[in-house]
Amino acid sequence: MSFRAHWQLRAEFARRLSAMYGDEVPAYNTLVDVSTAVNEDHLRNKGAEAERLGSISRVTAERHGAIRVGSPQEMSQVARVFAAFGMHPVGFYDLRDASKSSVPVVSTAFRPVEPDELAKNPFRVFTSMLAADDPRFFSPELQEQLRDFIGARTLFPEELLELADQAAEHGGLEGGDAERLLELATAAFKLSDDPVDYAWYKKLEAVSAVASDIGGVTSTHINHLTPRVLDIDDLYARMEAQGITMIDEIQGPPRWDGPDILLRQTSFRALSEDRIFRFEDGTVGPGELRVRFGEVEQRGIALTPTGRDLYDRMVAETDRRLAAGEGNGVRVDVARGVWEENLPRTEKELALQKLAYFTFTVDGDALGSHYGDSLRGGTVSLTELIEKGVAVPEPIVYEDFLPRSAAGIFQSNLTDDGSRDDAQTGTDYDIDVMSTIVGRPVADPAELYQRQQDASIAALAEDLGTTVEV
């Protein structure tokens, strides 16, 4: 039997989830088709420049999924499942205070971490856990009821967890076991047709629609599956032209005439889906829920901690100007002005100011004209090499997420704001707590990007035969 390595399992897992989700939410298929058309047109118009942040084949195949679980035990189990596909926890996101709506979850993202694995297949799953012990959202009585309800369900069968552990340990699985793993893992995220307890669901929905989607049903499911697009503004316009209602605006950085940074996201609004309910009188009947939506993303350059500090300041300044009534209340227009005032307009300048992460290639002509062979055995600064055009910056793609944008997507698809008692003190969660929950270290995204940049600088120094000072 043929052995399937992590990346092969991951690619097939993403493909099967995409097919399943397309059957469940047909508008997703429209989103994928429009995304593909946008990417093809963008490549035709921009040429090689269009692929600076990833090859067209990678971008077109790329997906990120989103799921929600209800407890630390479920979170640790899903970590085992994703480990089977070479997907590791990266980043900590606290959505509880990231928007005005009640979104009582903390999250991490499971994804490949090595550049070659990302290049083969970059599938990632943004995974949220209900903060069921946070008294701002849940009374002691409701906390106990949630513990009982969530503790009584099984999201991931033992056979799946055992196969996942084997795949994680051995770097993949042989044919028969690989097929069974894929079958069980895909089925674990399928929308269940089990009747939903109407009274219980509505009780949680009064707190948060996100809470009811997690703790009000007997299973988990794909909440959204997100294609990547090269021009999200074009995608937004095309979807609206097809009569599909999009959320009010694109989340994240604005469109402007400088380098794309971090992540821009939007989605079509959550659609009504037929579900079966069990009512208080014991009868069972049809109903509708609106919890799943179609998200799409455009990825930019990963920022250094210095760059992220600047980004946070620009977001705060945008908020300040909006509150002061500037820009006719249109966030993206105000943000564009802030970006133009504060952010360098070239990748080269981003690299020189150490605001973003890059790998570096050598321009042989610039090397010869500026240095000849004089660099060998000596020392030179990276800044000097960049300024003279010898070290050419190549952007490192941002592979992760923004808490405010994620919360903004969630909020835009909620029917109301829910409830929260801010007189209570919230439960403490951070990256260390999440590491304990998932049973393995949650990586800091900045450290992964820095490692990739450092490796490139070391290779640059070896190629030049010199010491490169950063």
TrEMBL record:
Q: Which SMART domains match?
A: DUF1338 (SM01150)
Lineage, top ranks: Bacteria, Bacillati, Actinomycetota, Actinomycetes, Micrococcales
**PANTHER family found in the cross-reference section:** 2-OXOADIPATE DIOXYGENASE_DECARBOXYLASE (PTHR39479:SF2), PTHR39479
| Main EC class the enzyme belongs to | oxidoreductase
This entry's Enzyme Commission designation comes to 1.13.11.93
What is the species listed in this Swiss-Prot or TrEMBL entry? Zafaria cholistanensis
Full protein name:
2-oxoadipate dioxygenase/decarboxylase
Under the heading Gene3D superfamilies, the entry gives: Uncharacterised protein PF07063, DUF1338
- What family does the entry list? Belongs to the 2-oxoadipate dioxygenase/decarboxylase family.
Q: Translocase as a keyword?
A: no
